[in-house]
Each structure stands twice: as structure tokens, then as C-alpha cells.
Amino acid sequence: MPTPKTAEHEPNNMNWKNIVKKMTSLKPVDTEQGQLVNAKGDEYQVLRETAKQHWDSMKSYYHKAATAFTKGEKEYASYLSEQGRLKSKMAREADEKASQDIFSARNKSIENVITIDLHGQHIKQAMKVLKLHLLFGAYVRSVRSFRVITGCGSHGVGKSKLKNSVINLLQQEGISWSEENRGTLLIKLNGQTDFSFLDSGSDTD
């Protein structure tokens, strides 16, 4: 008589909303002021111009604040220092936006395809891995395509339960896909970040 499965041996369900929160909290690496970016022509200078203006304003405010302080104009110096801090914040935000714009411009024609092999996985575990990769592709701009190997069933006819589960999920989420061969699917993400499985308590959906 087979031993019944116990809950302690079942994979835990993922808290998808917490994972999304962590993904969205990831920020591009800050670019140091003055660091060169491999952009064509004047692209770097154009995209960084706003940040440069804020950095220049910040320096000007701090210089004026120091001058005012030496003259005993402490309140005015405090005001100028606060304006300098504000310009510093605006400059960093502009630098971050420029970094993202430059990355998009330099990588828009590059399509990275990640291959994941789910063949041999239990359906619940395989779906968990697939969902993690979908979220990864949703928040990492350079990844938009996946090649998913599911296998084609015990009889090699392309009708494995795993493959059907993957297709059902993709259709449910409205994700574009095509069949490369009987045991492999090609998935194309188009900037989608809203998935229905984020509200689900099951990893088999």
C-alpha cells in the first residue's frame, strides 16, 4: 500500500506579492558623476544634460551658502544649503533616469533568450520555477524571451501534462508563445508585469 504524501513533504507555496515587492525595489546601479557611458555620438551628453545642470546648481548653492556663512548670514546660509541638498537629490534622480534611458537605447536591439529545462520536474515545482522566471523577465529589461523545455510526454507525442500546464498558464496570463518543437515552447514577454497568479495561493494554477 503506497504511503500517503504528507504536507511536510509538499513544496511550500510562494508568496508572489512579496517577490514582486523585492523585484520592484531593485534599482539600477547608480552612475558616478562624470563616469563615461558607451553611447553613440552625443547621446551620453544629451541624456545627462539635466543631471549636469542640477549638479552645477548644487555647487553654486553650496558655494553661496559658504560665503553667506562667513558673513554671519546664518539663516540665509541655511536656506542656500537646503537648496543645495534639493538640487543634489534632483541630480541623482536625473542621473538614474538617464542611466535607464541610456541602457534602453543601447539594448533595444538586443534580445536575450534564456533557456530553462523543466523536463522531469513535478508540475507544481515546475510551475513555481516558471513563474519566478516570468517575474524575472518582467522586471529585467534585457530579458524578454524564454525557451522552455517541457518534454513531449512518455510516448513522445507532444502531449505531456507538464507542457499542457505551461500552455494553460501562458494562455491564462495572455503571454505570447509558440512551439519550437514538440517538447519546447518559446515565450515572448512584452513588458507585462501584472500576472493573475500573484493573487493565487496555488503554484499549480
UniProtKB/TrEMBL annotation:
SMART domains, per the entry: DUF1771, SMR
The protein's name in its UniProt record: Smr domain-containing protein
Ranges for domain Smr: 116-190
Gene3D superfamilies: 3.30.1370.110
Top-level taxon of origin: Eukaryota
Membrane spanning residue stretches: none
Species this chain originates from: Handroanthus impetiginosus
InterPro entries: At5g58720-like, DUF1771, Smr_dom, Smr_dom_sf
